[in-house]
Amino acid sequence: MSDQPIGVVGAGTMGQGIAQVLATSGFAVKLYDVADEQLGRARAAIDKGLGKLVAKEKLSDADREAALARLDTTTALDALRECAVIIEAAPEQPALKEKLFRDLSRLSHEAILASNTSSLSLTRLAAVCERPERVVGMHFFNPVPVLKLVEVIRAEQTSDATVSRIEQLAADLGKTPVPVGDSPGFAVNRLLVPMINEAAFLVQEGAATPEAVDEAMKLGAAHPMGPLALGDLIGLDVCLAIMEVLQDGFGDPKYRPCPLLKRMVAAGYLGRKSGRGFHVY
Description:
This protein is α/β, with parallel strands linked by helices and 281 residues long. The chain has 11 helices and 8 strands. Strands 3-2-1-4-5-6-7-8 form an 8-stranded mixed sheet, sandwiched between helices. The chain is globular and about 55 Å long.
């Protein structure tokens, strides 16, 4: 990889995690967000995350300070102009992501533009860019510092060189890159989120409580976390958005979002980040 910095667009939960892993792996990072306040929260969260690694003796104090020194935050998209790779981790809103990719492709003709989208079409994102062969999916999983998987999604336009470079970057971060085609939900979320959605149907129908569903799947299927607790961790709004992408992409009624899930999102019960989802936090 180049000595150029790596850009991260979006300082939410995923952007924070990606920036932390990049910085601890020796990369200079430019973390962009539209809001200074969010960037402040992101830096504090990364500092806290690194502190936990120090407490567990997985990172030295010197390495922690060095990682923080490699992290630069900005509200100016133009600051990403010199980045070799820009990883987009903005909210799952197609219009927002397309505008970002359009702007980023004009900003830098040489950078690889990687999206952390959990379900949206990479081919569609690449189509709005001036260099579509340099667009690729780089889907991390939450919590980013812990989970090893990175789905590498090839758009119809993505070049072999772009895929190879992103697979190498994932490996440099201590992750395992797994190639996946550009199909709605990719691999993990196409399997995982419908399970969460079906668990919500069980609760809606009164067949089982959230606690019972989660306990049953932990004990009966050896899952480390029940599907509804996992949905709360992911964010129920994110789960709903993925189900809507699957329903729209495949046109199959088996991907119909559970009405209870839709009502909970409308009520603001989004899971851990709001303090309440299928469980209370």
